[in-house]
Structures are given as C-alpha cells and as structure tokens.
Amino acid sequence: MRLWRYSLAALVYDAVVFVVWLVIPIRAHALGATATQMGLLVTVHSVLYTLNSLAMGRLADRASKPLLALLGCAGAAAACLALRVADRLGLLFLGVPALALSASLFWPSVQGSIGSETPPARMERALGLFNVMWSVGKSLGFLSGGWLVARALPPEALSAWLAAHDPVAWRQRLAATFYPWKPGPRAPRESLPAEDGHPAFRTMGYVANFAAYGVAAAFQTHFFAFLGSQGLGRSMDPRTFFGLFLGIVFAAQTVGFALLRRGSGWAYRRGRLYASQILMAAAAVALALVRSDWAILAAAPALGLCLSFAYASSLYYSLHNAERHGKYSGVHEAVLGAGYFAVPLAGGALADRSGDPRAPYLLAAAATLGAVALEEAIYRRTSRSREKRSIAKSAPSSSPGCA
Predict the structure, then answer these.
(1) Quick one: which of 225, 95, 88, 245 has its CA closest to 155?
(2) Residue 166 — very low, low, confident or very high, per pLDDT cuts 50/70/90?
C-alpha cells in the first residue's frame, strides 16, 4: 500500500510539473530566445537540481524523508504559480530555479524511501511500478499541456491555464495527500548477487542515464523551434504536435518500464544496455533527418523505450545496495540533471555557431555512443581490479608454510 502511495504521489507531481515544462520552451521561443538561450534556460534549472540533489540525497538519509518530499510538493506548487507572471525571458530564468529546488527535495526522498523499505529481492518489481506511475504522469503532463496550450492565446498560454482556481496548487496538494506522512519500517537487508561488480554497474548506469536524458532534454528544449524552422509539425497546431511528440516518447518509456518490471534477467547484462543506447543514438539521428510529421511520430517510441532502460538501470543499481539509499538516489538524480543541462546547452551553442538546427540531436547521438565506449572501459577496468584482488586473496593460502 505504501508503494502505491509513493507511486501515486509521483504520478500527480509529474502530471503537474510537465505541463509547465511543455509551456516553458514554447513561451521562450515566443519571446525570441535563441538556441543558446534555450539551452541556458535548462542549464539554470539543471545545475541547481544536480547540486541540490547531491545534498538532499545525503540529508534524506539523516532527516525525515516524508517531510522533505512534502516540502518539495509545496515548492513545486509555488514555483508553477509564480511562472504565471513570466511574460519576459528574464522572468523565466528567475522562475525555473524554484522548480529545480523543489524537485531535488522530492525525488531523492521518495526514491530513498522505496529503497529503504523494499527488500532487494522485490526491488525490481517495486521500482517497476514506481517508474511506470511517474512516467504516466509525465506523459499526461506533456499530452494535456500540448492540448491546453493550443487552446490559449500565445504567449499567455501558461497564465491562461493556471488562471482557473489555481489547479497546480490543488494538484500538488493532492500529491502531498497521497504521500505517506510517516516513515515506513526498514526492510531487512540481504546479501546481494554480484556484489563485487555492483559498483561498476552503478557507475555504468549513471553514465547511460546521463547520456539518455541528455538526448531527451535536447528534444524537449530545442525540438519545437526545429519543427518550425523545417516547416514540420503542420499537420495540426504545432504546439499540439510538440506535446503529442513528447507524450508519445514518454508513453513509450512507460511501456518500457512495464516490460522491465516483469523481470526476465535484464539487470547486470551490459550488452542489453549498450544495444538500447545504440538504438537511441540511431533514433536521434533519424529524427533530425526525416521530413514527415508521421515519420517523426513513428520514430518517437524508440526514444522512449531506450530511455526506460537507461533510467531503470541507473535507479536499480543505485538502490540495490545495503545502505545509504538517499545518497545514491541523490547521485542518480544529480547525474540525470547534469545530462539535462550539458547536452542541450552544448547542442544549442553548436546550432547557433554552425547555423545547423540539427546540431543538438547529432551531438546527443554522438554523446550516447561515447557513453557506450566509456561504460565498456569502466567495466573492463573493474574486471581487471577484481582479478587482481582475487589473485591477492588466494596468494597466502598457496604460499609455502601456510596452514
């Protein structure tokens, strides 16, 4: 029951916040933001989110996780309502840091709670449910946001949607209602399989998630302007098309989480992780090159399915350990946040310098392939270290004179 409450709170939280995150790039584009400024807008949010997630993850291991998560809900409601008056680009830059600070309170706390209350043997299914639920919320946020924004007058879309009875504050109060107020009992710890290899897979998961969410952020930040520059997204209102595209991406991510929840031994299989990343790089390149609205929508699910594998790997390896769930949840979210600002910022700057609007997606694809090479290097280095430790442990017992 507690797992369902955590998951419902995450669903509602994302359903609210990602309506606003759909509007932010549309609003910034309407206010004349360049590609570099669009990347900087995400950077302001993500740098704060990265740094604060590390701090809040450690704090969650010592303080009340429910209290931190509830403060995150309240902060998100206040931030979303403050953005209703953002009718200048500078005000957007002032508003997004509050979203970052509230998210860094919420996510490490709820993930750390699930990690500490769930036995390792049940972790895969528990995280599968949690991932499905927040991903459903994110998909609903993008889909409903695109539909709602298209029915408001730009660039006042955000204010128009928020004007009726403060629905953002109401929904965040609903998220706070779902969230359990009292910490649950800690689950008994068990010995972990592949314990010596676990740190390597955790690091590999972080690298994969950094690159994967860098790809996602590149599309979330720059794709609306890209569609306009290429004359795409005209089969319907371009804002609706943008929301539909992102909604399909994260609906496919939800399907991927549901499939991974069933198990089938995907964890600790690096070949499957690499294959998903190579597919994501190919999908990013394809989306930058196709010239058909329907081809774009047809390619979108590949991004979402690959996102699900990278995110699930990073979170599973973070929490499938004996202690310090808040700390590792914070690192997981911080690395995700770093990918969210590094790739869109670099891609936007490259697009402005080169004049090629495809640059953010081609750069994101290259970063993903680079991540695969880095993960393999990490794995091989860890394997060599394990072999050396094994030889060192066996050496005394085989030496002469040893009992």
Answers:
(1) 88
(2) very low
Task: Please tell us whether the domain made up of 2-181+196-384 is placed in CATH 3.40.50.450.
Answer: no
Judge whether 141 and 19 are in contact, CB under 8 Å.
yes
**Rounded to 5°, angle at Cα 271 from 265 and 274:** 120
Q: Which residues contact 187 (CB under 8 A, 6 or more apart)?
A: 116, 117, 118, 119
Separation of alpha carbons 142 and 19, rounded Å: 6
Between 354 and 327, the more confident residue is 354
CA 200 – CA 223 distance, rounded (Å)? 34
Closest CA to 180 of 2, 373, 378: 2
Domain extent listing, the chain: 2-181+196-384
Q: Is 400 helix (H, G, I), strand (E, B) or coil?
A: coil
Choose the weakest-confidence range: 76-85, 163-172, 319-328, 366-375. 163-172
Give CA–CA dist 289/343, Å, rounded.
19
The residue behind tokens 């290097």 is 377
**Distances from the Cα of 385 to the Cαs of 200, 356, 379, in angstroms?**
11, 44, 10
- How do residues 288-327 score in pLDDT, each as one tens digit? 999 899 999 999 999 999 999 999 888 888 877 656 677 8
pTM to 2 decimal places: 0.75
Residue 220's pLDDT is 87
Place of tokens 């991406």: 249
pLDDT tens, residue by residue, 3-39: 888 888 888 888 888 878 877 888 888 888 888 888 7
- According to DSSP H, which parts of 230-358 are helical? 238-261, 270-289, 293-319, 325-354
Q: Buried b / exposed e across 274-292, counting CB within 10 Å, b at 16+?
A: bebbebbbbbbbbbbeeee
Alpha carbon distance 136, 369 (integer Å): 28
Distance CA 131, CA 307 (A): 11
Higher pLDDT, 111 or 375: 375
The Cα–Cα gap between 157 and 338 comes to: 29
Q: Is the Cβ–Cβ distance between 110 and 9 less than 8 Å?
A: yes
Distant-in-sequence, close-in-space partners of 5: CB < 8 Å, separation ≥ 6: 178, 179, 180
Contact 212, 332 (CB under 8 A): no
